[in-house]
Amino acid sequence: xxxxxxxxxxxxxxxxxxxxxxxxxxxxxxxxxxxxxxxxxxxxxxxxxxxxxxxxxxxxxxxxxxxxxxxxxxxxxxxxxxxxxxxxxxxxxxxxxxxxxxxxxxxxxxxxxxxxxxxxxxxxxxxxxxxxxxxxxxxxxxxxxxxxxxxxxxxxxxxxxxxxxxxxxxxxxxxxxxxxxxxxxxxxxxxxxxxxxxxxxxxxxxxxxxxxxxxxxxxxxxxxxxxxxxxxxxxxxxxxxxxxxxxxxxxxxxxxxxxxxxxxxxxxxxxxxxxxxxxxxxxxxxxxxxxxxxxxx
Length: 297
Hints:
The chain has 2 domains: 2-107, no CATH class; 111-296, no CATH class. The strands form 4 sheets. Strands 8-9-10-11-13-14 form a 6-stranded antiparallel barrel. It is of the alpha+beta class and 297 residues long. Helix content is 27%, strand content 21%. The protein has helices spanning 54-69, 94-106, 110-113, 170-173, 178-181, 188-193, 206-220, 258-268, 272-278, and strands at residues 2-3, 9-10, 14-15, 18-19, 22-24, 29-31, 47-49, 117-125, 132-141, 146-152, 161-168, 185-186, 224-229, 245-248. The termini are far apart.
């Protein structure tokens, strides 16, 4: 059971793989009926509003009208999404899909709600920089000086979580011991070359979004990152195998195969060269000599 800030109690009830319909009351969400045990037909999920609070009724009507007119350009169920990976395992069961739906209704998911930026770039294996992986970063500010990012192999809903990255400001990096600093990389080349992008949302004009993207780049260019990949998707692993792999960023032209960048640009509808020119005004900070150790061997 989950209690919200307005003291309403929410109860999610499951029977086998069917999500029971529930009524909305001013004090409790509870089942409005129990389906026939012998029935094999899936139960329709619906909300029956029975609140005595006029404000609740007004809110419900407003939400209903908005829902009728809202357009969803993308598929919203896992079955409708394209398969972008080769993960070992059976298709997701109806039971687990039902649990996902219920959980999204009653749990807060506070940490992921803080995510504020989607960035896309490439990482190289510190142990073998000839291997590279595209990564979609979903980042949040832990505080003013530290960011933390979840890394996925695509921006789709069925993407695999492949790693994590932490980003810190220079004054924190400089306080680390010398051996620790070798594990971190700079973001200067990624930003200045146009390789690092913040994919534009639908319906937002490119020119408008570019202003916001460049503001983000102004902040990221000075940060140092430490990243580990948990799933070696580039070699076709169907599960996250082996030990986590330390990764690094690219620091100069020619390190990342050009075809990878062209393919990424085409999929996201961006032009890295154009972004590079648009970021010429961003000052290039001095990079600590201990950073980017992979490229100094």
